[in-house]
């Protein structure tokens, strides 16, 4: 998997590249908007890390022109500005995620992995969550050789939670993953699906847990060693 | 003049005065003219009369004896050529002695004076044969006098008659003037009204808008131009401050990222973790200082008004990962629908974020945080040690922090919260939560929501 890093600070760029490479990714680093835009067009990347303040222009412009050209690579914006307004400007321009400087290199790597998981690129056919492997083609979730027996709704809920590991999924997000646009859903139904899914996960060792956050939604977290 | 006044009203008053005064001047000139004309007419009429007397004196009762068929002429003095008075008028004693009436014109005109009353008299004299009228033999002068004051009532009547016929012209001129003034003022002020409407639209979310200069009267245009210049300067300052915040953020955070990356590259040790904590603390401080700067320069915009519940849900969801990573739990109690409490998204995001981060930092080892929001209030509770009653107000002061605190945080978070609350007219209170820790309540007082 190849990641494009656009960061004008050479030392920070090198550190990001080092961090991502140690996670098994191939990294191309560019320091200007022009070079980066060209590289983005020529090579096919699984994800892009984009700094907003570049010496020859705004990262947002690079992003906008790439989106206009139909490049759908998931993009994580790296920026010094952290207000909601700045974040919305970034998301409006076509970014998929947003990380404020300074950041933990582990978090950056995790976010990049999450981005690639969430993206609908055909190469992502498997999602790993704790000891669980979710095969999207076969529609099977298994741990080692033991497959979980899940209903369609439970599987889709698990997929949604696994794509968003470490983030809170609202009931609405899960409902959108399970049901079509015109189907009705109730909070009770979602609760029921998640409840059953949680019971099936907890029946086996080393499974991730589903944490409930009242009023907010659910989060898939790795099993704590206790 | 410092008293506000209506231009139109002032013009009405002044023009009415001007028209009235001009009419008065016109009337006085007419009066003088009537007087002069009256005197000329009077002179002609006296001259005609005396000429007729000279032609046929027998037709007039000049000697005072009124008999049939004779016309009486008042104010006749008959003198011998040497000046001796033969017949004197009943009413006047004329002091003017006529020149030799046999002069070039056959008559003489003089201004005399009535010796008894002092009135001015106009007298005309001709020479007549005395025997023709039966007062003397030989030539005599017949002097006919009339007081000029006799003219006044005539002129007065004439003057009145004229003005009684002409008053409507005065009224017409006045009306036309006022109508013209009114329409001129109205038309000139229409551009001013348009400019005023534009001025109303100049709002914090529309700081690039300017007053239109086209159509403004030349007298008002400089004012509008200067106002626009002032707006230019304000906008420039505002943009400069925004740009400063953005570049300050970049300049401060990028080196910190480099620092963090370098420390992360060191093999794990207690010192490394300590250094990373320090970097994170500094990053948080920079974030809060930037928030402070942004809040100070932030201009509320109507399109940023969002429901309080939505902001709470977004921020709580965003921070839930941190809470869960710390082994804690966060709960949001909000109505499914909107609360109806509409607030500025940017400002209230700072409030909610700081309240939750504060709860996360000061909560227990596995912090439990509860966020409750409804129409009237936003409440953030934690299960930490809480805030002592003595510190209730001090926590809202910037850079204040508890003596016993672990050294984390610079104490800007709650100061920011209280500053924003003050700005939007809300109230922040500290109390004890049923979870055991602090309970911070932001209440929407009247006027908000």
How many domains would you count in the coordinates of chain B?
Answer: 3
Number of helices of chain A: 8
In CATH terms, what is the architecture of the largest domain in chain B?
A: 2-Layer Sandwich
What is the CATH top level name of the largest domain in chain B?
Alpha Beta
Structural class of chain B: alpha+beta
Helix share bin of chain B: 40-55%
- Count of alpha and pi helical runs of chain B: 8
End-to-end separation of chain B in angstroms reads: 43 Å
Total of domains of chain A: 2
The radius of gyration computed from the alpha-carbon positions of chain A, rounded to a whole number of angstroms, is: 19 Å
**Largest sheet, spatial ordering of strands of chain A:** 2-1-3-6-7
Q: Which shape of chain B, going by the Cα principal axes? A: rod-shaped
Strand content of chain A: 15-25%
Poorly predicted sequence stretches spanning 5 or more consecutive residues of chain B: none
Which architecture of the largest domain in chain A does the CATH hierarchy give at level 2? 3-Layer(aba) Sandwich
- Largest interface, Cβ cutoff 8 Å: A-B, 33 and 44 residues
